[in-house]
Amino acid sequence: MTISAAFAAAGYANSALAEDDGVKKLAIQISDNEKGTFQKALNVAANFARAMSEAGEMYEVEIVAFNAGLHILREDTSPVMERINSFAQSMPEVTFSACNNTITGMTKKEGKAPPITSHAQVVPGGVTRLMELDAMGYFVIRP
After folding, report:
1. How many angstroms separate the CA atoms of 79 and 45, rounded?
2. Radius of gyration for the chain, computed over Cα atoms and rounded to the nearest angstrom
3. 1 three-class SS
4. What is the pLDDT of residue 45?
5. Residue 110 is assigned to a structural domain of this protein
């Protein structure tokens, strides 16, 4: 049995064992409502994008927001929305995902759906999305 098969049999998706398609992939988890965390996550994405571009490497970055971290993608509460708009215009390789489970919870609590930026795709679950990204070869971090 190969190492990859052993990990798969054990139920682990390990980005280091995923098939290499030549694209450097980074997933960034945001689950806290902290401006500092938002800034760090965006800085990491920008620095990674710059480094990959300078090295001539293809890359993808996905920022996944859930729980209190969803505020980074809310048009009414995000302290970094201007920067997200800038990313969307200048860095198409950096994408944003918003957790639908969190959106549903916020909708129930607030009595209306939170306004999520149009730059984000809505995914069924944030943790589930991170697991999918890991299985697709993304290196997952939480700044």
Report:
1. 17
2. 16
3. coil
4. 98
5. yes
Q: What is the Cβ-side half-sphere exposure of residue 47, based on CA atoms within 13 angstroms?
A: 7
Share of the chain above pLDDT 70, in %: 86
Helix runs in the chain, H state only: 3-9, 35-54, 81-90, 100-110, 126-135
Q: Do the domain assignments include residue 7?
A: no
For residue 82, the domain's CATH number is: 3.40.1260.10
Per-residue pLDDT tens digits for 25-77: 999 999 999 999 999 999 999 999 999 999 999 999 999 999 999 999 999 99
Into how many domains does the chain fold? 1
pLDDT at 17 over 50: no
In sequence order, which residues have a C-beta less than 8 Å from that of residue 127 and are 6 or more positions away? Answer: 66
Q: Does residue 3 belong to any structural domain of this protein?
A: no
Boundaries of domain holding 89: 28-141
Separation of alpha carbons 124 and 19, rounded Å: 25
